[in-house]
Specification:
Structural class: alpha+beta
InterPro entries: AP-4-A_phosphorylase (IPR052908), FHIT (IPR039383), HIT-like (IPR011146), HIT-like_sf (IPR036265)
Distance between the termini: 74 Å
Pfam family, one: HIT
Radius of gyration: 22 Å
Strand order of the largest sheet: 1-2-3-5-4
Number of domains: 1
Shape: elongated
Protein name: HIT domain-containing protein
Keywords: Nucleotide-binding
Largest sheet: 5 strands, antiparallel
Helix content: 25-40%
CATH superfamily: HIT-like
CATH class: Alpha Beta
Length: 186
């Protein structure tokens, strides 16, 4: 009873967290569940196996492969900087660009050009970051297997999250991006 003698107002209790979905609270949420695999793997994901040797052994969907060539292939980056972040890799386990064969470098270049065309069509990006990081000192996450990054960029894709929170907001799930890029590949 309250001081006035009236019964107290009933208190709404939260039964489970699923009842919170959609309740406005002033926060925007960036759902990035694919990052959990990277976080749980620790500082050296896939330390004992090469992800670029393993991916071609899987189905295209499971390996995130969008196209397979004769000497090289393109797949989505499992830990992308932006939606549509592709990697172009030779099948052969070779670490340095100057150790790649002429056939491998030619196909890597051709797949990179085609990746740019496809990503422009699928995502209407405004530009690209292209690059090969050679060695850990140069930023290579997987230094033992050569791979070219093709990162689509948009005029409005930069924000403060990567700088202060080490968080990247990605608007599409990897499976959706892989399907769209694979479907658009000529």
């Amino acid at each position: 009873m309250t001081e006035s003698g009236a019964p107290p107002e009933p208190v709404e209790r939260l039964v489970d967290a699923s009842t919170l979905a959609g309740v406005p609270d002033g926060f925007q949420r960036l759902w990035t569940p694919h990052r959990m695999a990277y976080i749980q793997a620790g500082p050296e994901p896939l330390k004992h196996e090469c992800p670029f040797c393993e991916a071609p052994k899987k189905s295209d969907e499971d390996g995130l492969i969008v196209v397979r060539g004769e000497h090289a292939y393109a797949l989505l980056n499992l830990f992308p900087y932006n939606s549509g972040h592709l990697l172009v890799c030779p099948y052969r386990h070779v670490s340095l660009y100057d150790d790649a064969t002429p056939e491998e470098t030619t196909e890597i270049a051709e797949l990179t050009q085609q990746a740019m065309r496809v990503l422009r069509k699928v995502s209407r990006c405004d530009g690209f970051n292209l690059g090969i990081n050679q060695g850990a000192v140069a930023g290579a996450g997987v230094e033992a297997h050569l791979h070219q990054h093709v990162v689509p960029r948009w005029n409005s894709d930069a924000n403060f999250f990567p700088i202060i929170a080490r968080t990247k907001a990605l608007p599409q799930l990897l499976g959706e991006v892989r399907q769209a890029v694979a479907d658009a590949w000529a």
